Structure formats: structure tokens, C-alpha cells
Amino acid sequence: MPNALPNAVVVGGGMGGLLAAIRLRASGHDVTVVERLPTLGGKLATYERDGYTFDIGPSLLTLPALIDEVFQLVGTSLNEQLQLHRLDPQFRYFWQNRRAVTVYDNPVDTASAIDAMSPGSGGQYLQFLKHARRIWSISERTFLAGPMTGAVSLFRRMDSPRDFRQIDAMRSLAVAAKKHFSDPLLQQWLGRYATYSGSSPFEAPATLACIAAVEADHGAWYAHGGLGALRDAVVKVATLNGVQFRTNTEVLRIEGNKRRVTGVRLANNEVLTAPIVIANVDAEHLYTDLLPQRKTLKAVRRAGRSTSGVIVLVGAKGTTQNIVHHNVWFSVDYQHEFEQMSKGEMPEDPTIYACVSSVTDASQAPANCENWFLLVNAPAGAQVDTETYGQWLIGRLATIGVDLRDRVQFIETIGPTEIAHRYRSSGGAIYGTSSNGKRAAFRRPANRGPRKGLYLVGGSSHPGGGLPMVAISARIVANMIGHDLRVNPKSR
Ligand SMILES: Cc1cc2nc3c(=O)[nH]c(=O)nc-3n(C[C@H](O)[C@H](O)[C@H](O)COP(=O)(O)OP(=O)(O)OC[C@H]3O[C@@H](n4cnc5c(N)ncnc54)[C@H](O)[C@@H]3O)c2cc1C
């Protein structure tokens, strides 16, 4: 590949950093990714024990086309690199009144299942999907199409005021859910999509309803071997295309002067010189430690952290009837659950998400066993006693759903404190910044940093957390760098 362009350093080897690195390499930059952990992938991480494999970060892949787009830039494809499964069914949702509904890959099948649980609601679901699809198509060409520097950047990309009305940004997802569905259970189901960005349905805009359409139309995906296989494929493609990696290497500071960045200083005092620095770290860590900036830090804090979570990994003997790959057991009172979290408390009746990937992929657990990845929402910064929480959660699950107690081979628990330490994410926030509030979309740290040559990619910057958003942030940043170099070719 040509080497006429300025070299770049990416701080942090999370998915946003890796995808940005491949994109820049495809354009001809020399790129080095510096990661403090021994492994790459950031929150897309795995844990293995006694023949079990767990994805301990993302377990649901949506919009894999966004990663394929990056692979295509370097002459390969996701299909060439790994085996993807489009899950069907996608999810099974359970309520404590013993009602349950299965969501399928085909929305018509889902509508029938919803109607069987709640007569009349199947039609409401199909009507709702039309609305959610409109939001997604407008969001793709506006909010997600480039950097966001305030409401003006959004309005500029809109065709008319109608676009703004249709994205439904002025009411909360919970309020909109009451308009779309008469059954309170389905209102709760729709509200759950706020948690895909670590937000509360009672505070996040109803725009997030579009995630339901993305899942319904573009599928819920799994990579054979676990999502760790996706990470491995991304690392392999980056390596084969000449991205350099420095793992076990911490960046201490971003170097430069008041106007522009000139590289990064590592913990061993070595300096990597580069006119382009892409920070793939939590924005709070960036502006507190790597490039202390009081004013910018204040703005970052105003954006608000996403929720954290408590992860409970269970190796379980035997197999379970009536579950699918992704399962959710809802709390009785969703509003109370989020009110408790907004006060910094752990919910006493948490909604429990369980990914049991051995249902789809026998390689993930020993024969006749299951790998249960349980996740409950927790407020960022919550103190959780990980010695006892796992047992408690398994007891809770036994009361409301599946009794694993006699089948447990081991339990491992990871709480917000461990998540914070592992990834240097503020308070253990799992999605970076939240989408709570009408202004959240404009408060996220910008992809362009306050110094020339500095760019931000990943969950805490625009457009937010979750693998698809992080992949979009990599696209936005790579395009921005290309644009900056075209406008100012002297910086080459
Ligand atoms: C439990 C959990 C469940 C999730 N579930 C899903 C899901 O089902 N679907 C989905 O799409 N998303 C999910 N997510 C969110 C998704 O994992 C993240 O949004 C995404 O992986 C974040 O990528 P990132 O680019 O922001 O980088 P991160 O993953 O945040 O990586 C940042 C990297 O920077 C490194 N770093 C930090 N400071 C320094 C430094 N000073 N020097 C060098 N390196 C540094 C860190 O070690 C880390 O590796 C989940 C996350 C978690 C934790």
C-alpha cells in the first residue's frame, strides 16, 4: 500500500479503534494501535473455563454489514472471514405473570406470536414497525451520516421539518410505547430498546424505537465460535493489511502544543510521533488523564454515562427447555427499576438478560451443558459484592424463570468496578455515554478533538455505544481525516 499520507496512532484497541485503523490503512496511512491490555477488542472480550466459552461483552450482533463494509475496503468480506448465523428465533421474552413471547427473524411470524400472547397487538406491532423503519431511514441519512457538532448539524442533513417530526425525538421511548401498544407488557418490551445504548426508556428519546426495526429487518446475528471470533477476524484483517499493534502498552499522554497533537507518550516514556491521533478510549479518561482539559471534561460529564452492568457467568450441566439463544426475564415494575438506578441503587427486581450461545453453537460448552451469560443493568459506579451477587441472581432467576441451582458447575461475577478497571470506562459504563434526555445526541463528545490532528472514535463519542454505532463512528472519523487532508494537503 502507498505510504504518502501522515501516519496515525490509535489509542485503544477496542472495536472502534480497530475498524478506524483498517479504514485508515486502506487509504494508505501507516497505523499503529496502542492497547494497554494484552488482548485486543476492548469490551468485545471472552472468558474460557472448564470447556466453556463466554462472550463477556457484546453477545448480540446487529448490522454486521457495517463491519463487512470495512472488510470490503481491503478486499475481503465478513463471509470470507467467519461463519455468521442469522438467528431465528431472535429472542424470547418472559414476564413474571407467566406470559412469554418469541420474536422471530420474520416480522410477520413475530406479529402472529405477539397476537397469540396479546390478541390485537400483532397488528399494532406491524403498524409500529412502519413507524420505526421511517425513523431508521431518516437517522441513517442524518444523525448517523456524519459528525455532530450540535442541533444545526442534524437539521442541515434533514430534508424538511417533517423529518424531525418523524424521528420522534421530543417524547420519551416509554411515552411513545404507550401510544404504539395497548398491552403494558409490550410497552415494556419496546422500552427495553433504550438499554441498547445504556439508557432509560423513561428518559431516552423515542427515536430509539428504530432499533426494533433494525433487528426485525436486518436480523440478530451470531458469529460461529462466539463474538470473540468476530474480534479475531477484525484483528486478523487489520494485521494482514499492515496495521501495527503494541499491546500491553499504556498511553500516558497525548503530546503536542496548544494548537495540534504530535503523537503519544507511552508508560515507558517512549514517544510515538504522529500528526494524527485517534482516541478510542473513554472520553472522560481522555480529557482527565491523556489530554487534561477542564472545560471539555465538564462538557463530557454533562453528556452522562451509560448504565453499567453486572455480568454473571454460569457453567451449567444439562440443557434447558423453552429457552432460545437470547432471553429476557422482565422485572414487574420497569419504572421502579430505572428509578432505583437513577438514584445509584441496584434494582431489587432487575430485568435479567441471558445469552445461552450453546443453544446455537455446541462449541461453546461441554456436551450436554450450557454457557449462561447473565446480564443485569446497574448504575455506573455502583458497588456490587461480586462474591454474593451471582448466587443471589441465580436464586432470583429460579424464582421467576429457570432454576439452574442444581446444575451449576461454577459462577463468575463481574461488576461495574471490574468493568471500569478492565477497560478504563468511567464507572464501568458499558456503552460510553447514554442517550438520556432530549439533548443527549448533541452532548456526546465530538469526533473531532479540541486540538488539530486529534479525533475520537468509540462508544463515548458520537454516535454512541454498541457495535453498530462504534463502527459508524470509525467511518465518520476516517471520512473526516480524509476530508481534512483534502482541505489542507500541507498537513501531509
Ligand atoms: C457487558 C457488555 C455487554 C454488551 N453487549 C452488547 C451487545 O450485545 N451488542 C452490542 O452491539 N454492544 C454491546 N456492548 C457494547 C459494546 O461492547 C461497546 O459499545 C463497544 O465494544 C465499545 O467499543 P469501543 O470502540 O468504544 O472501545 P472499548 O471496547 O471501550 O475499548 C477501548 C480500549 O481502550 C483501551 N485503553 C483505555 N485506556 C488506554 C490507554 N491509556 N492506553 C492504551 N489503551 C487504553 C482499553 O483497554 C480498551 O481495550 C456491550 C458491552 C458490555 C461491556
Uncertain stretches of 5 or more adjacent residues: none
Radius of gyration: 22 Å
What order do the strands of the largest sheet run in, or round the barrel if closed? 7-6-15-16-17-14-18
The proportion of residues forming helix, as a percent range, comes to 25-40%
Look at the helices and sheets and give the structural class.
Answer: alpha/beta
List each distinct ligand once: flavin-adenine dinucleotide
Identify the overall geometry: globular
What is the averaged pLDDT score?
A: 96
The CATH topology of the domain at 8-44 and 63-83 and 224-304 and 433-491 comes to FAD/NAD(P)-binding domain
Q: Please write the CATH class name of the domain at 8-44 and 63-83 and 224-304 and 433-491.
A: Alpha Beta
| Number of DSSP strand runs | 19
CATH architecture of the domain at 8-44 and 63-83 and 224-304 and 433-491: 3-Layer(bba) Sandwich
Distance between the termini: 16 Å
Sheet of most strands: 7 strands, mixed
